[in-house]
């Protein structure tokens, strides 16, 4: 059975990106994938600073890197801050990029995001796709941008827009069909 690790770039109570993560979790599980849905709140890491290497590397960096290496799929839901990535996301990628062997070269990545704006994190996703690609990740093509969040979710936290549901289905289809083929 394929396995997926899912996470969100927001640890805010009531995060819309966590709701997107939950929606993707449900669809992956329905597709027969074993889902490990985590919160970055459980992987505490200081702001990256090369002075912390090698004596003060947070154990969470190694723990998270190992999770990336041991799942077939990684799905990341990210908010957009000021047309870019939130600091939690940037910091997490910085720490992961320093772990050996690379946590980015085994799995297939899907990215998505929810924002308050109607462009639905397209700039943040562009940054994330570009950064992940430059460090060896294979990111599937679907652009899963959801926004504005005020109309995208029903009061019970479910995705309410047919277009977003369709994009999640497409994302899950890609994530379960693409493979790095062991390279
Ligand atoms: C510092 C900051 C910058 C933001 N910049 C953007 C932005 O550039 N585009 C946008 O659509 N929303 C922006 N927002 C609003 C977020 O999309 C909104 O807060 C969203 O709900 C955050 O995701 P979350 O609910 O998962 O925490 C910003 C919010 C914050 C706090």
Automatic annotation (TrEMBL):
<dbReference type="GO" id="GO:0005829">
    <property type="term" value="C:cytosol"/>
</dbReference>
<protein>
    <submittedName>
        <fullName>NADPH-dependent oxidoreductase</fullName>
    </submittedName>
</protein>
<dbReference type="InterPro" id="IPR029039">
    <property type="entry name" value="Flavoprotein-like_sf"/>
</dbReference>
<dbReference type="Pfam" id="PF03358">
    <property type="entry name" value="FMN_red"/>
</dbReference>
<dbReference type="GO" id="GO:0016491">
    <property type="term" value="F:oxidoreductase activity"/>
</dbReference>
<dbReference type="GO" id="GO:0010181">
    <property type="term" value="F:FMN binding"/>
</dbReference>
<feature type="domain" description="NADPH-dependent FMN reductase-like">
    <location>
        <begin position="5"/>
        <end position="142"/>
    </location>
</feature>
<dbReference type="InterPro" id="IPR005025">
    <property type="entry name" value="FMN_Rdtase-like_dom"/>
</dbReference>
<dbReference type="InterPro" id="IPR050712">
    <property type="entry name" value="NAD(P)H-dep_reductase"/>
</dbReference>
């Amino acid at each position: 059975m394929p396995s997926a690790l899912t996470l969100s770039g927001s640890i805010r109570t009531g995060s819309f990106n966590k709701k997107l993560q939950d929606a993707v979790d449900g669809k992956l599980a329905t597709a027969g994938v074993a889902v490990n849905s985590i919160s970055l709140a459980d992987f505490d890491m200081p702001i990256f600073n090369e002075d912390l290497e090698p004596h003060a590397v947070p154990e969470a960096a190694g723990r998270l890197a190992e999770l990336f290496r041991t799942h077939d799929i990684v799905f990341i839901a990210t908010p957009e801050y000021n047309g870019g990535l939130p600091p939690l996301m940037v910091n997490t990628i910085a720490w992961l990029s320093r772990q050996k062997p690379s946590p980015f070269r085994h799995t297939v990545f899907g990215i998505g995001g929810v924002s308050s704006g109607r462009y639905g994190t397209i700039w943040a996703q562009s940054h994330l796709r570009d950064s992940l690609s430059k460090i060896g990740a294979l990111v599937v093509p679907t652009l899963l941008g959801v926004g504005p969040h005020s109309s995208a979710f029903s009061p019970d936290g479910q995705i309410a827009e047919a277009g977003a549901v369709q994009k999640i289905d497409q994302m899950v289809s890609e994530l379960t069909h693409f493979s790095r083929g062991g390279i």
